[in-house]
Amino acid sequence: MTAAMSDSSEWVVTASYAIDPPLDVMDEWSEQFDASVSRVPDRGVVDVTVYAPGDLHPIDVLAKFIDPINDVISAELAGVEIVRESEWQRRAEAPTIPELMSAAEIAEELGITRQRVHQLRSTEAFPAPLAELRGGAVWDAAAVRKFAQDWERKPGRPRGDKQRDYGLAEGR
Amino acid sequence: MVNSDIKGLVKWARSQGWTVSDDTKGYTRFHNPQGDYIACYPATPSNARRRMADLEVALRKAGLQVPPPSKKELAAARRRAAEVTEHQDHDEEE
Fold it and tell me: CATH 1.10.1660.10 spans which residues of chain A?
């Protein structure tokens, strides 16, 4: 059960049944219970989703809304989930894949060159790419932004012999 | 004729290999790329917002991948929100 204490929106109840009914039977259930009826092929279940008043206790929701459905659908109940409608709406709008970034986009985000991005890849703190494609690697943008927050930039050329030599030459 | 509430979702699902079709009962039916029937949307839902949410969740559970909004889409959403606020302020002034 997922619910914020202050949330008083209605309950959304989903009962999952281990059954694979024909389409017209799913339509009948939908009309009979004013429910949304859908298949989840990977889990081999059918979900029946109904709405219940938000002021009811979840136990009463089960008794009043799920028991009558159980009486009609004579199949094994695989699970029940009760969430607030606000959470349901959030899930409905949530992307299933993260924002992705290529090396070019990371360079733009961090204000560095693409070559520098590839150098940073060899450092321990830089996030691993989500996928390595033929066109290049892609990263989770959130991981890159986290890296950018914690990254201690050391601007300018690293001090080395050549640089010191150059400085001496300029001073001449 | 696909219900206009779900036009965007239908377009996206089709682009991901899903089959979406209207039947004689007035339902818009969604089949995944493997051909399994997943869910439907009625022509005249009693509560469009809820039915839409149920459909979105059902399609995600069945494997439809949905990316985050692009920078262009986010900018358009911000513009729309600003326009709404502007109209509200204008109405209050009147």
Answer: 95-150
The minimal CB distance from A36 to the residues B37, B58, B66 is found for B58
Topology of A95-150 in CATH?
Multidrug-efflux Transporter Regulator; Chain: A; Domain 2 (1.10.1660)
CATH class for the region spanning A11-93: alpha beta
CA dihedral A59, A61, A64, A66 (to 10 degrees): -100
Report CB contact under 8 Å: B51, A36: yes
* Chosen from B31, B50, B65 to mutate, greatest number of chain A CBs within 10 A: B50
Q: Is the ipTM of this complex over 0.85?
A: no
Q: Please, what is the average pLDDT of chain B? A: 90
Q: Is A49 exposed, middle or buried (0-12, 13-18, 19+ CB in 10 A)?
A: buried
Compare CB distances from B53 to A38, A89, A96 and report the shortest one's residue.
Answer: A89
Residues B31-44 have pLDDT tens digits of: 999 999 999 999 99
* Domain span at B26: 4-67
| CB of B63 closer than 8 Å to CB of A94 | no
Segment A109-122, tens digit of pLDDT = 999 999 999 999 99
- Whether B90 has a pLDDT exceeding 50, the answer reads yes
B94: distance to nearest CA of chain A, Å?
Answer: 34
